[in-house]
Amino acid sequence: MSHLEMRYNEPLPHRPYLLPEGYRLVTVETDADKLGWIEACAEGLSTGAWTVKDFEKNMLEPEGLAKDQIFLVKDAAGRVVATATAWLKPGNRGYLHMVAALPEARGLGLGGLLTQHVLDFFLARGVDYITLDTDDFRLPAIKTYLRLGFIPVLSEYGAEQLWRDIFVKTGLRTPVFEVQHVKKEMN
């Protein structure tokens, strides 16, 4: 497992992400919402057994985080099934944080919907740039991020090859290959 960084380059045309019928997009309001967030992140990100107190310490106390920046998707029964957070960092930077979904909610487009919602949140506030961190095995999420305009950040030794492998696995074309190809032709 390798850690990856991505940066939002510029808005790209994208298909509209629509909530499935009966689902709704909300922000954290109650302890039940916090517990739903904890469950979604434990299932989707393997965060472990957080308590409401852990949630409040890690998600509400840090500078740049607030309840109205923690977005939830609830199903028709009111259960939290997915989440994403818009963290405003110093230097007018936005950070896409804690994108997760319960296993039964995967494949519904909720990750894309939440990511686009976070991007819209940041763009409306005029942030200078937006970043995220993810893991190399989260291929569906990586495909979503790339399609929405995030680009790889080659911040560590070996990151270029790691990204090449990801593009091969996902079947997506990469501008990195094209740029390197152009450089070779110019020599």
UniProtKB/TrEMBL annotation:
Gene3D superfamilies: 3.40.630.30. SUPFAM superfamilies: Acyl-CoA N-acyltransferases (Nat) (SSF55729). One of its GO terms (molecular function) is acyltransferase activity, transferring groups other than amino-acyl groups. Residues 23-169 form the N-acetyltransferase domain. Pfam families: Acetyltransf_1. Transmembrane segments: none annotated. This is N-acetyltransferase domain-containing protein. It comes from Hydrogeniiclostridium mannosilyticum.
